[in-house]
Structure formats: structure tokens, C-alpha cells
Design brief:
It holds the Pfam family CMD. The chain has about 150 residues and is mainly alpha-helical. The protein has a domain of about 100 residues: AhpD-like (Up-down Bundle). The chain is about 65% helix and about 0% strand. It is globular and about 40 Å long. The two termini are about 25 Å apart. The model has no long low-confidence stretch (mean pLDDT about 95).
Length: about 150
């Protein structure tokens, strides 16, 4: 982490108990964050909805601020759990939220909505994003990783 100028967070510290696995996990997270074609706002929307479905206060503490920084407003962030009734989401945002529920809760997949908004490559990015953050939420829970000091959960 020092090599990239970042202090480790509690997730990094927990995964560092298996050093051979830490770097690949961080590489995947980095690629999802900086190398994806899908907008950061849509990816953060996916992550936050997955975090809610997984009851991951840790992920929400880290990603709600990132979602706000990426352009999601307080109305949208406050309406995530009731997004189907809320009028503040665009068609691509609705497609992402529906897909998050497919990945995280087994809801039916809306292929028409996905195809209307995202290319096959972008759908793959969303799939890897959602699946990665489901896995991370479960790792956080299994390893009893506490929310980092200074963040609220």
C-alpha cells in the first residue's frame, strides 16, 4: 500500500493474513475502480445496492461517500432500498439496480433493460463488479472486519 501512497484500511489488514491473496484481490478492485468502461457512478450504485443486500455496513461506510463523489445525489442514495418506486433514477441506473438485485438476491434478470443500456462488455463489467462486492461483503463478515476509524456505519 505504501508503494501506491495509500494507508491500508481494515479490509487490507484482514486480507494481509494471506499475503499471496491480497495483491490479486487489490488488483481486481483497482481494475474495477479505474479501468472499467461503465461509469463510476453506475458502478458505485451497484456496489451500494449489493452492500445493502448483503447487510455490509463496512462496504456502505466506504462506498456511500464514493457514490456521492461520483455524482449520485442524496435523494438517490436515500432511495436505494425503494428504487423501484422512486422517480429519481435514470433507465441505466434502474437497469444496474435491478441487476444488483439479480446478482445479490436472486431476482429475475431483466435482459431487455440491460441490453438497452449496456453492451455485452459493460454487462460483464457490471457482473464482475457485483460478484466481487458480494464476495468482499462475505469476507468482511466472515473475518469480522470492523469499520475503519473515522467512517460511520
Amino acid at each position: 500500500m505504501a508503494a501506491v501512497g495509500r494507508d491500508p484500511i481494515n479490509l487490507h489488514r484482514a486480507l494481509a493474513h494471506a499475503p499471496a491473496l491480497l495483491a490479486p484481490v487489490l488488483d481486481l478492485i483497482h481494475a474495477l475502480r479505474f479501468d472499467a468502461a461503465v461509469s463510476r457512478g453506475l458502478r458505485e450504485l451497484m456496489i451500494c445496492r449489493i452492500a445493502q443486500l448483503e447487510d455490509s455496513a463496512y462496504e456502505l461506510a466506504h462506498h456511500l461517500p464514493m457514490a456521492a463523489e461520483s455524482g449520485l445525489d442524496s435523494e438517490q442514495l436515500g432511495a436505494l432500498e425503494r428504487w423501484r418506486e422512486a422517480e429519481c433514477f435514470s433507465a441505466p441506473q434502474r437497469a444496474v439496480l435491478g441487476y444488483a438485485e439479480h446478482l445479490g438476491a436472486g431476482a429475475a434478470r431483466d435482459d431487455a433493460a440491460l441490453d438497452a443500456c449496456f453492451s455485452p462488455s459493460e454487462q460483464t463489467e457490471l457482473t464482475v463488479t457485483g460478484a466481487t462486492y458480494i464476495a468482499l461483503a462475505r469476507m468482511l463478515r466472515a473475518l469480522d472486519v470492523q469499520i475503519d476509524e473515522g467512517l460511520s456505519g
